[in-house]
Amino acid sequence: MNAIYILWLRELKRYTRSRAQIIASLGQPMLYLLVLGFGLGPIFKRAGAGNYLQFVAPGVIGMSVLFSSIFSGLGLLWDRQFGFLKETMVAPVPRLQIMIGRTLGGATVACIQGVLVMVLCLVFGFRPTSFTAIPVALGFMVLIAVLFAALGMAIGSGLQDMQGFQLIMNFLVMPIYFLSGAMFPLNTDIALPLKYATRIDPLSYGIDGMRHAFGSPNVAFPPTMNASVLVVVGVILLVFGAWRFTKIEI
User: Fold this and answer.
1) Mean pLDDT throughout 223-236?
2) Nearest to 97 by CA among 242, 234, 249
3) pLDDT score of 95 more than 80
4) Cβ atoms 140, 226 nearer than 8 A
5) How many independent structural domains does the chain possess?
6) Burial of 43: CB neighbours in 10 Å, binned 0-12, 13-18, 19+
7) Which element (helix H / strand E) includes 12?
8) CA 166 to CA 160: how far, in whole Å?
9) What are the angstrom distances between the C-alpha of 141 and each of 1, 5, 203, 235?
10) Which family does it belong to (predicted)?
11) Which residues contact 161 (CB under 8 A, 6 or more apart)?
12) Spatial distance between the Cα atoms of 185 and 21, rounded to a whole number of angstroms
């Protein structure tokens, strides 16, 4: 357990000591909130679908958690390049504990990032129907962060260079985000192939769960279904990520 805590703490300190990273990571969510929240708001309202900022804010929070958690696997490649991973792997510590510590560290950083973006949404005018529902939304943030941090670790474990990781991440992250219903309602009449694609995207259930918690409009799934899908997929990816991590060759 000490190894898990130390690796978790290392990821947390590395994030908190980089103020430039914290500030820069808020730029893209701010752009989405300003351009989409206020730009598409009048169109959304004329269509009788309510306030678009209320709808899109959970999607922007989910985007921040997704990006931060899945790109935590990039740190694995940095550690491989600079030799820290080799020192960690030869230590008398089970590899499973190393993987869990790094995954939890990446998930914690992603949750912090999500909370910062949520505060930013509140500044720009987003209002939950009840502030007592925020802990439920935080629970969905944790599930999203753990799920995609495990996916990032699984992918990072099988790569040798950062260029390959960035290509795979760009190939995966943007479809995952845009198919999650963060920008458009999933409970509307959409093309059948797109509908199936959104149903197999785990981020869809995380963002929809946050919309339930915040009382945002246009939810698509029951809250219990959202939580169950995230837990099941998260466990599968944790097991898969742990298996991939044990196969790393230094």
Assistant:
1) 92
2) 242
3) no
4) yes
5) 1
6) exposed
7) helix 2-16
8) 12
9) 24, 21, 10, 15
10) Belongs to the ABC-2 integral membrane protein family.
11) 77
12) 31
